[in-house]
């Protein structure tokens, strides 16, 4: 079974390619990236027919959006029809203390949205997420605020990132939620414990970030030495010893299995994810056009139930060593299982 049919974000669209692009990599999050690299990835995306880009106001403090905007500016009149663009807001840092927090008020969300629109030179955003929930603000109130932005024509669809199934149900009672973004891959399968099912029932797309396990499910995982130079991975349990070596050892078997099938490891990891549900839309990030081609190849991979079983025998549920987040990184995402 191949997974190259367009998938809907929400009940009524827009329709997007099964594999999109997570544009956090257009910043220096996983290593240095410049304008040319980001633009080359976007050009390759167009060549491959990929039409979904996911970014955020906080990715490089606006750098990711600026690079998308500068690429679109070169495309002329057709720019508005090339991509379905999603962005997010709600995370901020206190300018005096530097403390990270979340603001779900309409004033903050609309102000940040306006800045995002300006950076990308867009009239509206196809999909606007609340990046992290502020637990002090009822999600019903937040959803009403987002619905006002829909009525104003500034956004077309509403999304939430890292929320629990119960929160999705509460929000849906106010307005249809087109997408929920959550980490989902062979190494992180907590979405299967309620979120995946709730999204399917409610007609909500599950947009899967980090679908190649933050590099563990690729042919070239981050080295331990390099991971220690990155702010996120140096404190992430899966990249700390002895977990790191254990995760490399167990995924070596998956790399060998992908090689036996004549495909890149990341191709097989994404193909497995696409087969888990037609409402799942992975958004892998990359700074490499060649790697993007490997990721996109998952849409044409002939996945079978036999291959799925063999993959899950190599990487069984719960195989990863270490939590997906550190204590600090867990501030914001909703735990539900």
Tell me the layout of helices and strands.
Blueprint: E1 7-8, E2 15-16, E3 21-22, H1 35-48, E4 52-54, H2 63-73, E5 84-89, E6 91-93, E7 100-102, H3 106-120, E8 127-130, H4 139-151, E9 158-161, H5 165-172, E10 179-183, H6 195-202, E11 205-209, H7 224-227, H8 243-260, H9 265-274, E12 280-282, H10 289-296, H11 305-314
Parallel strand pairs: 3-4, 4-5, 5-8, 8-9, 9-10, 10-11, 11-12
Antiparallel strand pairs: 1-2, 6-7
Helix pairs in contact: 1-2, 1-10, 4-5, 5-6
Outline the structure in words.
It is a single chain. The protein has helices spanning about 35-50, 65-75, 105-120, 140-150, 165-170, 195-200, 225, 245-260, 265-275, 290-295, 305-315; strands at about 5-10, 15, 20, 50-55, 85-90, 90-95, 100, 125-130, 160, 180-185, 205-210, 280. It is globular, with a radius of gyration of 19 Å. By secondary structure, the chain is an alpha/beta fold. The strands form three sheets. An eight-stranded parallel β-sheet has the order 3-4-5-8-9-10-11-12. A two-stranded antiparallel sheet has the order 1-2. Helices cover about 35% and strands about 10% of the residues. The protein has one domain (about 5-215, about 265-300): NADP-dependent oxidoreductase domain (TIM Barrel, Alpha-Beta Barrel). The chain is built from eleven helices and twelve strands.
Short description:
With 337 residues, the chain is of the alpha/beta class. It is built from 11 helices and 12 strands.
